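Show me a record, fold above all:
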Amino acid sequence: ARSTGESIVAAARRWLLDAAGAPIAGERRVVLIEHADMANEQTQNAMLKALEEPTDRHVFILVADESARLLPTIRSRCQALRIGPVGHDELVSHLMDHRLLPADQAETLASLANGLSGLAVRYADRRDVLDWRRRIQSELITLLERGRADRFGAVSDLLDEAARLEAPPTAPAEAEAGAIVAPSAQRGAALLVTEAWLALSRDLLLAAAGRPQLAPSGELAPDIGRLGARIGTAPMTSMVRLLERIHDGLRENGSPRLSLEVAMLAWPGTDGAG
């Protein structure tokens, strides 16, 4: 908890200093930092100080949904352990048991999350995230029939809305439209957009291949089947590959705005042409 008037960064530094103390009962003290990738740049720099000078009696565990949002200096000091997707039935049961969702809602969220338990729980806990995904996919579908000017104009709006979605509640000024967003936050927003875009593109590819029933995005965008058939498999295959490269590039500090503009240039039209 923060003291009155204490900033988040100051509170993080104080907490990390306390956590760096000697273990009391066991041989080691384990420090678990959840949602480490959601911390802003200043807070991550505060974490970095603790990670730079570890002792053999401390173990720091950083949990991140998207490791690319961590500073490169933090990633270089960590040993990555990736956890694979959870089975669909197991994820549905988890949502029903621990989030008390009805079976139909649990099925929908498990499908949309595609085996990512953290994402499924986030959808269950934050309706605004699920609503954002619906809006962005609807916007991208609309842009299938728009020209380049409209597509380029949409990039700023997509980035701004994703940045507002991820902005901490204690910093509302940073979430306002038109506000200057830190490079790390803008990259995180671009990653969010790219991930939602990639999910939609993969589902359009499934639909183009005649398997729309396997497309999770069909839960939010019922026109997936019709649109995929109109576009065709070849354009969607190229789009999926491009978005995968863009996603990897953003992880390596690629330009957020330029990356999305490149994707907009390649986004195919419903006549099968880009």
